[in-house]
Amino acid sequence: MTASTTRRTTAARSRIAAVGAIAVAGTLILTGCGDQTDKASSTPSGAAANSSAPLFSKLPKKIQDAGVIKVGTDATYAPMEFTEGGKIVGVDPDVAAAMAKQLGVQFKFESGTFDTLIGSMQTGRSDLVMSSLTDTKARQEGLDDKGAKTGAGVDFVDYFSASTGILVKKGNPDGIKTLDDLCGKTVAVQRGTTYEESAKTQAEKCKTDGKGELKVESFPTDAEAQTRVKAGGAAADLNDSPVAAYIAQTAGGGKEFEAIANPTDAGLFGIAVDKKNTQLRDALKEALDAVIKDGTYKTALDKWNAGSGAVTEAKINAGS
């Protein structure tokens, strides 16, 4: 995967606010990841603890006893994970629900601020992160975009493939077709995502190529970045391809945005697990392989028109 692929945003948290798809109220309200998160609804996916499930014995005893896997997510990124009717729904919760049947425990999603999710595993607030998180070597090693150590690294169980999506105003007034077309313009991104990093990398490329300055504006949420594009203050918002496509299809009844895909830079989303928790990591890999084999994985993706991102097997740390 190139630097231009993420997630999130690394990535549309509160992105949903921009498309009017989110209901804020939740049936169960919990505090998010520390003081930086808002209260958000938490929704279990899957059945109650079932020790006779095929892979129950593979789980760590702590999780067997609890009957729950606590999942950190940023539920503002439709169609991957977002809040609707008081529940966290989307591709990730549905894939988790399929895996839950193999593992015999619930996946309980709790929404928090994206850039605090990995740290939530170190504090014990979550057991894993499933939030359209791009598997990168830097994240595996706990490094920032400059190679400096920022915290504990994680292992990824890779479950989805996505490329960069360029979200532009309806009619594409600036004629954007590739990242190079953003030179001399302004791009809006969500802060803390790999798309913020890729936008900055593209800005350096524009400068080197003498094609004009690319100004990067970063916002706490993707919804704010979308608003900036809609208002004409930015030429584009960078996002994951399924998310950009969903926003283009739903925002304002499909009349506000267009999505441009760049499939040449496809990268992998992974379920992030603390490196010390190898037993949980391996159990998740087995569960993902099982649901890929029995077809429930593809069914979950197709429900959200995300089948093009399906992987054929579970892999660990296959990102680049």
Rounded to an integer, what's the Rg over CA atoms?
19 Å
Total number of beta strands: 14
- Please indicate the percent range of residues in DSSP E strands (runs of 2 or more): 25-35%
The quaternary structure here is single chain
Terminal Cα span: 5 Å
The major β-sheet equals: 11 strands, mixed
Task: Give the overall form.
Answer: globular
Structural class: alpha/beta
Helicity range:
25-40%
* pLDDT averaged over residues: 85
Please tally the helical runs, counting DSSP H or I stretches of 4 or more residues. 10
pLDDT < 50 runs, ≥5 residues: 1-41
Order of helices and strands: HEEHEEEEHEHEHEEHEHEHEHHE
